[in-house]
Design goal:
With 268 residues, the protein is α+β, with helices and mostly antiparallel strands. It has 2 domains: 2-128, Alpha-Beta Plaits; 137-265, Alpha-Beta Plaits (2-Layer Sandwich). 19% of the residues lie in helices and 34% in strands. The protein has helices at residues 24-38, 40-48, 169-185, 241-250, and strands spanning 2-9, 17-20, 51-53, 56-58, 61-63, 67-68, 71-74, 77-80, 84-91, 109-113, 118-128, 137-142, 149-150, 160-161, 204-207, 212-218, 226-232, 234-238, 263-265. Strands 1, 5, 6, 9, 10 and 11 form a 6-stranded antiparallel sheet that branches. The protein has a 4-stranded antiparallel sheet with strand order 15-18-12-19, covered by helices on one side. Strands 2-8-7 form a 3-stranded antiparallel sheet, with no helix packed on it. Helix 1 packs across helix 2 (40-48) and helix 3 packs across helix 4 (241-250). The radius of gyration is 18 Å and the shape is globular.
Amino acid sequence: MRFRLSLSIVKKKLNGAKLPLNYQYELSSWMYRLINLSDPVFSSWLHDTGYSMDNRKFKMFTFSNLKPGRYTINGDRMEILSDETELLVSFCLPQAVEHFITGLFRNQQFQLGDKTSNVCFSVTSIEKLPDIVFADTMRFSTLSPLVISRYDKSGSKYAQYISPADKEFPELLIKNLLAKYTVIASLDGSPFNTSDAVKDVFTSFKLASEPRQKLIKIKEGTAQQTFLKGYMFRFALSAPANLMYIGYYAGFGEKNSLGFGCCEVIKT
């Protein structure tokens, strides 16, 4: 399920509606709080267990960058010049837990920012977007940075974030989709037809634009501060339709529930 949220700025301050560019973690935390208030049992499962495989957890939701009509960037700040902005949120969940999603965001307010600048938003409307017909070859454009990482052979505990131009990127992207597929397909109430085989199939990835690097701080200003490197770009993918489904609704790549890997379909 994918929704378009229309967000209005509650009140502009004298210095304008300015935000730090690193707002993804705060936005993710707001969504977790909403889920907890709506269904504490599901929230506990999602946060503590989720979809797990080999000590890896997949939250199966993602969201786009904020999409204001007009804005400017100055240093590490974004000033929203329009009175409204949009946010796309996407969930890949079994039917049994999708019943409360529609009303999850209705009439909600939240604040993003830091001590220097912050903005209060109000959710003014929610629109469920039409379902997508998935094919074996599709084109996508990132709506938030797409993250893929690897660990070098020296045994370093720190991940190396790689560009979509890297020769290992396609294989790691498909492996991530297959891992998500394996977890979802093992559950009752799977949102797609699990009889379709997806292993040992032909896949291909083609970069369709120059990738733009984005370095995002997570938990900025705290002892847990860390950096994630993602990329904004367009790409063509050939793979089973079920993997397209997962990438579109759960997010492509890693760190999806922190607002990474949200993509839209490019219509040809």
